[in-house]
Queue: 4 jobs
Job 1
Amino acid sequence: MQLFKVDGMRCGHCIKAITDVIKTADAQAQVEVDLASAEVRVDSILDATQLGALISKAGYAAHLQ
């Protein structure tokens, strides 16, 4: 499981955008988003670099924790 601190998440649209971009690349990924702590936890076959790039593609800055 990878844990990212993500800048700029504020609402349900943010959660959907991040979840959708990850699930498009790995349909079996488990994505948990916590807006209060600005954290995204991902259990995926993709590595941290790939996941960070996907979160960036969705428009958010991701920092591996």
Job 2
Amino acid sequence: MFEDPLFIVVLLSVVAVAVVLLIGLGGFAGGGEFNKRNANKLMRLRILAQFIAVLLILGFVWLRGGAD
């Protein structure tokens, strides 16, 4: 499965969502100027990254689902 390029792209998109989420949570927990400047931007970026990740996951399942 790890030799499938589409699977690797899906995996990278999920990791990207996790990274953006963790940066947002760290900024929220720390508060301060970083959180005031970037909270909404990070939330929008996370939602966009999640949307792309879900589309890629659905595409992977659709394309590779019947390949038994």
Job 3
Amino acid sequence: MAAVKIGLLGFGTVGRGVYKVLNSHREKIYNTLGVEVEIAKVLVRNLEKYQKTYPELSNLFTENPREVIDDPEIKIVVEVMGGIKPALDYVLQAMQNGKSVITANKDMVAEHGRELFATHEEQGVDFLFEASVAGGIPIIRTLKESLAGNNFKEVIGIINGTTNYMLTKMSLYGAPYEEVLKEAQEKGYAEADPTSDVEGFDAARKLAILASIAFNSRVTFKDVYAEGITRITPIDIQYARELGGVIKLLGIAKEDEEGIEVRVHPTIIPQSHPLAAVNDVFNAIFVEGDAVGPLMFYGRGAGEFPTASAVVGDIIEAVKNISHHDTGRIGCTCYLEKPVKPIGEISTKYYIRLVVEDKPGVLASVAQVFGNQGVSIASVIQKRSIEDLAELVVMTHRVKERHIRDAVSILKGMSTVREIANVIRAEGDF
């Protein structure tokens, strides 16, 4: 085989990174594979714009997706355009045409994984998606292959760099949410519309993919409970620190005899936890298997070259498989159908910050509400006093979410409770 030809769908940040990495490592890739890897066509939305910007590549660009999807000489289609439509249609058509597909598209994989895997298996082509979670961190193939001899107890990760950057700034400098969001947008870490990041949706899509692989059962985006960081304040971060903890936006996937729990939300973890030291835009994923024990994977979770690194790794894998007539050998690992636990049935610890009237009997009435709802209190600390009001921080023992929600609902209706300022879940020992 003289060369394996590739078609790129998209030439944004990641697409350009893939082109650059393939070219800068051309000799190494050839020596590894014994064949050339050649980008034959690149689908773009505005042909004139890209031909003017990159005149040396003008013959590669096309606005017609058929020139990539239907070209019999193109053996691998790399989708880096993002979004679900029309990317999903292009990818399915490419596989139906016998082409292996590589994608960095977490939205598409998290929401349409069943259809994508079914098509890849029917056609006997590769469908690889390492770059869809945590950028350059090699977690997908690690879970599917290197750690396949394990049953996983949990997968917990910082899998959104934007929110980790924001929480790091809030923690280090006491800056308010609005200020650090503006800074993140100015630096290009946050989009003009930051909803997907700050509300936890981006992390939820990634967690759906990780949980599906770890627990061998299909988990989709809609199965994941998502809560963002918009209600986190510098005072909550300060109080968490006083308790010996750090607030991180975590994706948490666990399994027990009742099913799988998958949730994304701000979480207080002990300062001694490996994830507590992961700051700025970095990602990290902590996994625990029954055979291997605890492991942590750390690195850049986004960006031109980290994501391109993962894509090119998948390209090399796909080319090897084509060269050895062995495509489609790693199929979907979701061969079980396990229930996903509703958020009300998960058990964890809770930090609750309340503003109450500062007078005798109030603390006792608050404690009684918690006790009546089956919530065991680990500690109650009175913090600031403002005129006739007092701020309380309650830490609970492990309890089901529905009991906390019931207690909070009752507390909100009490005349002596002026505000439930925040409720944050906590993991670990403090």
Job 4
Amino acid sequence: MSDTDEEVITEAHGAGGGQMRELIEELAVSRFEDGAADVPLAALDDGSVQRLANGGGSLVVTTDSHVVKPQFFRGGDIGRLAVSGTVNDLAMMGATEPIALTCSLIVEAGTPVETVERVMESMGETSEEAGAPITTGDTKVMGSGDIDTIAINTTGVGVVPQGSHVPDAGLSTGDKLIVTGTIGDHGISLLSEREGFDFEGDLESDVAPVNDLVATAMDAGEVTAMKDPTRGGLATSLNEMASKAEVGIEIDETAIPISGAVASAGEVLGIEPLNVANEGKVVMGVESDDADAVLAAIQAHPQGEDAAIVGEVVADHAGRVILDTGFGNRYLSEPEGEQLPRIC
């Protein structure tokens, strides 16, 4: 292979789809030891789960890095995004009461101090909202132009009773699929704001910690699997869940909650809301007999009034997602390549 043919990392590798998973598996998973984790790195779940000694429960750990442009947007900012993203990843594993978060901040030289203060204030407010204290951290300053203003890494730690964690691979035939609210809000809102579009209607990011909402759902019935549909959106999350559990998923497109503002803006922008990031929503599998009770509990929560049952798990077409459009069926594939400028 010549120098000009050297393989390089592209923005498509960070889009959250198949190319990103392949990169992680080739560069990281194949080189790191899993140890005795109940949910190891190779599972590529939202976090790892490691049993504590003497029956002390299981430790859930997750980490995430956050870059977004603009850093402040309708509905939130990079600080709220950083805390919510890590709290939500813990919640997807069933750890709804975080013990602690870390905060590693990388700042470009020349960034106004006021900007950093606003971000730190937002992180503090969001961590208090989520009940997730920030207990340690690190700060680095890069040269002007070496980084785009601010990047934040947060790591979260929680504990669940042994055997009670919720894997994203836990779906079984007959389970119902619930989406906890309107989808596409974060991605469509940020893109329209960044590009200077002024759409009518309430168009803003949904970024928020969902751990209390998830706890409410788990108290109401048997939740078998969860994902927060961030990069790659609902389409990617559903495909990952179907593939990992080796089951089929059938989705009723007309049941998927999408706000009028997002639908209209997505049509103008030529973007499918099912493919873009959400930062305050959950897609969960629920045991069939408990689905109505879980849905009612979610809808009674302030964050879940638009929740809906959108489909079910079937034995046919394992690893695939079928979308019933109302006019026929088609495969719902996850987006490939670079779909959008980075929004989370």
